[in-house]
# Entry
Amino acid sequence: MSADKTSTSGHDLGWPESDPEGRTAGWGGDPGAAGEREGQAGTRRAPAGPGGPEGPRQGIASWSALYDRLTGLPNRALLYDRLNQALARARRNNTSLALISIDLESVGEVDLRHGEEAGDELLIECGQRLRCTVRPSDTVARVGDEEFVVLCEELHSEREAIEVAERAGGALEAPHTMAGSELAVRANVGIVCGEAGSSAQELLRDANVAMKRARRRGQGVELFQAAMHAAAIGALETEHDLRGAIERDELELYYQPVLAIRGPERPLGVEALLRWRRMRRGVLLPGEFVSLAEETGLIVPVGRWALETACATLAGWRREGAVPETLTMSVNLSMHQLATASFIDTVSLALETSGLPPRCLCLEVTESSVAQDPRGAASALHELKAMGVLLALDDFGTGYSSLSALTSYPVDIVKIDRSFVARVAEEGSAARMFEAVLGVVRAADLRAVAEGVENEQQLTLLRSVGCDAAQGFLFAPPAPAEQFVARLEAAAHIAAEG
# Structure
């Protein structure tokens, strides 16, 4: 990190002094500042201490104990001290305060694409923008790699706290220009308003809970509600149990067929769907734990297990002659998996270990997931395509979908979302739109699969507009491996007799 970006002269970066309220003032006597990575922010390049590399060496250890060495903002320890003092003032004066927890997305991506120095500059600029957005009396702290906290005192309403949070989020998400490149940042913001009886630990915890909820919901600002605490406790318990689910053999794959629907129905493929037989909770569907797995990073080992199991299962069926040689196995991917540096090797190893031909594996991604990093996703998908595996764009027809995705990514199959399919039999305009989408898919030389087909009326309309393949409860619900094979054998027997 060059000195002109991370340090200032000694007279500009004064040694912290105490203000009349007993708070330690930051740079140049400013009581606000920012934080650090967990514990100490020394994991990034940073100025040497007060005054920067050219400043006085005296007191560097004391300065580093209270301030983030990258941004010069207060760290977690100093924030905690200021928060305790603010709560004491709130009790004396019968006033309220607010904590605003901010998590930045995409900084890690900036590190990878433009280098760690660019990521450092981005964090420094984010800290500066926050300082310029809030009041001089507010404290801005950096408490983690990409996490900031703002402490606001003497607020008169929750609405006032929300306005501060919205201004902060807007300032952070405004385009950042560095080295000729425009960088985008997404800010997830959680707010908790504290009364005189609150504790510092509770406020920090609750602000973080609200921020994580904002991140999960894709909503910029979230105000903490009491019910969130119980939900957070439940999420922690789920995370703890999920960490041991693979070792305890609690994960299982169910399988649902994909059938050709023009002419005689015949199996074209099978989709592997994850289930978790959680202790004392029964069988959980993906919607009950996959989001948490993505948030905690557990989706990487869980997804690897699913991929390896699915490949081994189809390879075994092929060796036993239980399925057609042309049958493909579809496995859903998370963007977290796709962004992992070792993912291509993971797929290659799963195919090699199982003996499954690459052409028999289909990896499914949603447009909403690859849109998080379009360039990175396209690069990874092209590598997978070069291996010979099939690629499918899942959930097409939802609010995220755009026709440009059909040419932006090297996919072979487009899976049209169940919500779109459900409207086909109910709305004439939906049927015409579906037919138009099929035309575009064919023009791009891709195959279409209709998801969530549940009744004969839907099937009849899908056939009438020329849809080639479908899956859904009308044909068969997802089932464990043994039941799935038994159904295939029964169907084949009936077809042979007919």
In short: Confidence is low (pLDDT under 50) at residues 1-43, 45-49, 51-58. The radius of gyration is 27 Å. The chain has two domains: 3-224, 238-497.
